[in-house]
């Protein structure tokens, strides 16, 4: 009788194919704390995510989608902001979104084995960051500062020069010392070319946060509480 082929684990720390387990998080101040690891399959993929959200309604949940191998490295070694791509909305850094589906779909397009890391923050977390936190205007349909910053990071930086007409230098000076920058995701179809004065960048409804400094990354890492892992090749 032929032996059954062993199924590959979803997440490197968990031998179970379904359900959840706990894994101690290195570097956490409270060593008794651990992250919950959820292995998602067809039957539980909606219920586990919904149940987790419902049980944490009093918190701000932020999500980071990445390959399972990258997730393993983050859990083991922490967040490295220098590994982030540079030609992105808010420049190089570690990005999280306030929308689970957005983070999952972002990595799902390029990988069959992927994980969504969940950071659970107190409602006052951003306020507590003081001057190290910058929040773009989320209420206004048009935020010129947000538009200039996204255009600069996505387009003008790629040409290796600063468009003098954009008058963005004061904004860059203001943001260069920030550890956390929060604002809308830019529309995916933004062309990578210098922005003209009449070009408007559309906002995706998803809110994202870019962690820009290692100091901010160390603070943020302490709030990693869960990992939802997928393996679409099974």
TrEMBL record:
Protein name: PARP
Taxonomy, superkingdom: Eukaryota
Organism this protein belongs to: Lymnaea stagnalis (Great pond snail)
Gene3D superfamilies named in the record: 3.90.228.10
